[in-house]
Design brief:
Blueprint: E1 19-24, E2 40-43, E3 59-65, E4 69-73, E5 78-82, H1 87-94, E6 99-100, H2 112-117, H3 125-128, E7 135-141, E8 147-150, H4 156-162, E9 171-178, E10 180-181, E11 186-194, H5 197-207, E12 213-218, E13 230-237, H6 267-277, E14 284-287, H7 288-292, H8 296-300, E15 310-318, H9 319-336, E16 340-348, E17 363-371, H10 375-390, E18 394-395, H11 405-411, H12 429-435
Parallel strand pairs: 1-3, 2-3
Antiparallel strand pairs: 4-5, 5-9, 6-10, 7-8, 7-9, 11-13, 11-14, 12-13, 12-16, 15-17, 15-18, 16-17
Helix pairs in contact: 9-10
Bound molecules: flavin-adenine dinucleotide.
Flavin-adenine dinucleotide (FAD) binds at residues 41-48, 52-53, 63, 83, 105-107, 110-111, 113-114, 117-118, 120-122, 166-167, 171-172, 299, 398-399, 428.
Length: 439
């Protein structure tokens, strides 16, 4: 795996990752042997900020060679492709043909398998749900080499366990996805400043009827009257017309740009990062690539780079407790001075996939990155978990690297319903940590 393709911001110890086993072509894929002490775990492009795609002492099933298109139906709006296909490549194929993915997360390198197994969401969750809502069928191979077709009608329980199942039920070989029609590659977008958290939440609630995509960048260093101040971006797909030229497809940044020896992530840099991105803009049209995927200089650039890597924290609080609970989370983050870059605040609707580790529920989610300062960062996140739990909220498992078994069980009381569907030879660093299972 080239460094440019890895997730350099994690700064993972190679020994903690497991060795790679590359897979090619879903019709020939045979899984290597694995067992409890040498587990298997599928991996896409390693874009999950957590450790759910790592198998210390075991084997990571590298799906990036499974990237063929199997079938495209331009009349009904369906596409079947292998699990290692990147979402950015799919969009580049689909949008000129008048179709898009109904759910687009914020990174083009995410693979179809990772999007299904993580049941990823976009900034239109209240209307579109999560990625799993649009999967009509998939094929799974398990460690006994048996293959399973899964859908809402065929092996429906295994299907439900696999969508959002974090790769624990077997390897997804390909998925058949329902698409959404679009009339052009552009969206109409506007951005509005919000003086504080209540204003941000109020604008998002009001905009829910008329705007499909909504997300606010939040200054996680602000306190007092400015606590939760932000910049709300909202958008809808638009038709043909006069639009700016499309941006080029982006390649990963060279590794040299993300590996300085010192950290620029300081208490002041979070605010600087927010202010640099905090530019209210008049309504206008924007190409889908620029809209969905933040420039890599923000995602992987020096203002967010830290030699020890990052921990990502994404919590979701129910509508009724969101303002008070998120206010407390933001206050503790601001006091700690330990965040990198702005937070992202967005609305969520009900979970519709029925996934066993389902994260989504009606309310508001807040995502932040924290430079990894070891124990101090873990203690801060445990403190935030207690606030989120008390508010009836939840944290996103696919991006977690810190939950312990008791907090995991508190957030996901039904987690054991996944056990009958889990492949006995599959386990990840995440799974071992949150279940306390030893090798
Ligand atoms: C810049 C950035 C922006 C992001 N934005 C969003 C966002 O807007 N919304 C969101 O929900 N998430 C977001 N994420 C997180 C990311 O979308 C998810 O964690 C996603 O699952 C990563 O996909 P991946 O292909 O890189 O898979 P990996 O990170 O390699 O794996 C993720 C999980 O999927 C499993 N998996 C991967 N492939 C398969 C397969 N073929 N079969 C079975 N299991 C498999 C792995 O075992 C693991 O549990 C973002 C991440 C980054 C870096």
């Amino acid at each position: 795996m080239g460094d440019g393709d890895q997730a350099p911001w994690k700064r993972l110890d190679p020994a903690a990752q497991g060795r790679f086993h590359a897979l090619w072509w879903s019709d020939r894929a045979v899984l290597p042997e694995g067992d409890k002490s040498r587990p298997l775990i599928p991996c896409g492009n390693g874009r999950s900020d957590g450790d759910c795609c790592l198998a210390p002492g075991g084997t990571r099933l590298d799906t990036r060679g499974l990237d063929r298109l199997r079938h495209f139906d331009p009349v009904r709006g369906r596409i079947a492709c292998e699990a290692g296909t990147r979402l950015g490549d799919l969009l580049d194929f689909l949008v000129p043909r008048g179709w898009t993915l109904p759910v687009v997360p914020g990174c083009p390198a995410i693979t179809v398998g990772g999007a299904v197994a993580g049941d990823v969401h976009g900034t239109n969750h209240p209307t579109a749900g999560s990625f799993g809502n649009w999967v009509r069928q998939l094929e799974l191979v398990r460690s006994d080499q048996r293959r399973w077709f899964c859908s809402a009608f065929e092996n429906p329980d295994l299907f439900r366990a696999t969508v959002g199942g974090l790769g624990l039920t077997g390897l997804i070989l390909w998925a058949d996805l329902e698409l959404k029609p679009v009339r052009s590659p552009f969206l109409t977008r506007e951005t509005l400043g919000c003086a504080g958290l209540a204003a941000c939440l109020g604008l998002i609630r009001e905009g829910g009827e008329s705007w499909e995509y909504q997300q606010a960048l939040v200054d996680v260093t602000a306190r007092g009257r400015r606590l939760g101040r932000g910049l709300l971006t909202r958008a809808n797909h638009t038709g043909p017309g006069r639009h700016p030229p499309p941006p080029p497809s982006r390649e990963p940044l060279p590794r040299a740009t993300v590996t300085p020896r010192f950290s620029l992530v300081q208490p002041w840099s979070g605010r600087l990062h927010f202010l640099l991105q905090h530019r209210p803009q008049p309504a206008g049209s924007v190409h889908y690539r620029s809209f969905f995927f933040a420039p890599e200089v923000w995602e992987y650039g020096p203002l967010r780079y830290d030699p020890q890597g990052f921990l990502h924290y994404h919590c979701l609080l129910p509508e009724a407790t969101a303002e008070a609970g998120l206010g407390e989370v933001l206050e503790r983050l601001a006091v700690s001075g330990r965040t990198a870059g702005p937070g992202r605040l967005g609305p969520f609707g009900a979970n519709r996939t029925g996934g066993l580790l389902a994260f989504a529920r009606p309310g508001f989610g807040l995502a932040v990155d924290l430079p990894n300062r070891g124990r101090a960062t873990l203690d801060l996140l445990a403190e935030l978990d207690r606030v989120v739990l008390a508010a009836g909220g939840v944290v996103e498992p696919s991006r977690d690297r810190q939950l312990d078994p008791s907090r995991f069980a508190a957030f996901f009381p039904g987690w054991e319903t996944l056990l009958p569907y889990r492949d006995p030879a599959f386990a990840s660093a995440f799974w071992r940590r949150v279940t306390g299972e030893s090798s």
